[in-house]
Amino acid sequence: MLMIGSSADHPKLKNLITQSEFLAQYPQSYYLIKIELSKLPISTLKQLKVLENPQINFYLLRHLIDVGAFEQALPYWSTIPKKLPTQQLESLIEVLLKLGKWHELTLLSKHIEPFDRLDSLLQLQAGKIIENIDKQQIKHLPVRLLPKALNFHQSCKNTVLLLADHLEASIHLQKLRAQYNKQPEPSPNSFCMSEVFYVGSALDCTEGFNGFALCNLNQSLPHADYQIIMTKRGLANVHNKQMTLSLQSDIDVLIHELMHFSGFEDEYAVYGRKAKWLCNSSGLKAPNLYIGTVQSAPVDWSPAKTCEKGRLKAFKPSSQWSKMQYQELPLTEQYRQLWRKKIVQDWQFKQKMQANKGEVIIN
User: Are 282 and 267 in contact (CB under 8 A)?
Assistant: First the structure.
C-alpha cells in the first residue's frame, strides 16, 4: 500500500520532473495528489494509461493532436469523457478546424454529448442548407450568408462573386482570396472579389465533360460580372462567366483560370470538340493565341501546342513556356502586359455599351 504524507517537502510536490517521475513509479498516486494534467509530458501520460481514466485519456489525446500524431491518437477518441468542460472542448474544436481534420471532428462528435457548435460545423461541412442549421449558432460560425446585393468600388474593372458549397471549401477559398488580394494580377482592381458566401446544397455541382465541374445554383444571386465556385466535385475550369475550383486548387490555378475570364486560351494541346471549333479557322482567337499558318502568323510569334489535334496550327507570343501552358509557372511580364491591355479593352467596351444604352455603371 502506498503511503503519502502531507508535507510540502515531499519530492512529488517540488517540480514537474520529480512529480512526473513519482507518477511513473506510482501511477495510483494520481488519485491522492493534486495534478495539473496539462503540464505533464506525454511520456508520463502514457504511463498513466493503466488507470483507464477518461480525463487522463483526454489530455493524452490532446498531446498527440498537438504534435500531429493523429494515427496514434485514434484509439483514444472512444475513451475520453462524454462531457468535457466547454473551454477544453472549444479549444480542441478550433485546433481541429484550423488543421482541417474533419475525420477527427466527426470522431469527437460521436464520443461526447451533443455540442451545438460542433454539430453545426459538421452540418456546414456536409453542405446542409443554412436554413436547416441552428439559428442561434449561425452568427458564431465561420461562414457568410449570401446578401441581396454586393458593394464594389467603382474603380473595379471586373467584379467577382465567390461561393462555396461546404465549409472546407469556404475556408480554402477565403485563403485563396487573401493570397490574391496581397498580389492582385495583372494589376490592382482588375478583379475585385467579394467575400466568400456559403450556399450549401443549394449549389448543385456535377462532373461534366472530361471530369470538369459544372454547377447550378437553385436560388437567385446578387449581380457580379463573374462567379468563382469552390466545390467538392470536378476539376477546375471556366465555363462562360463561371469558374469552378476544387480543394486542390492553389493560387497558380486561380490566376490561370482568371486569365480564361479575360479570353486567354490554353497553350497545351486541346482535344475533341474544342480542337474542332478552335483550330478549324484562322485568326487571332485570344490575346495569346493565333490560329493559321506559319506564313500568316504574327511576326515573332512561336508555335504553340494548342492545335496539335486540329486542322490548322497555333501560335503564341513567346517562345518560352507560359502560365497558360503550365499553371505552376510564374506570370511573365509579357503576359501581364497582354492581360492588362485586354482588361482595359474589355472595360472600355463595357463602358461604351452602357453609355449607348444611357446607363451609368454602378458596381
Answer: no
List all residues 6 or more positions away from 288 whose beta carbon is below 8 Å from its beta carbon: 264, 265, 267, 316, 317, 322, 324, 335, 338
Of 262, 245, 264, 263, the C-alpha closest to 254 is 245
What cell does 282 get? 484562322
Residue 175, strand partner residues: none
Task: Answer yes or no: is 309 within a domain.
Answer: yes
Same domain, 161 and 243: yes
Assess if residue 1 is contained within a domain.
no
Instruction: Report the distance separating Cα 353 and Cα 343, nearest Å.
Output: 15
Asked which of 210, 239, 261 is the last residue of a domain, the reply is 261
For the chain, how many structural domains are there in total? 3
> At residue 139, does pLDDT exceed 90?
no
Lowest-confidence pick of 22-31, 191-200, 284-293, 296-305: 22-31
How far apart are alpha carbons 202 and 180 in whole angstroms? Answer: 27
Question: 125 and 32 share a domain?
Answer: yes
pTM exceeds 0.70: yes
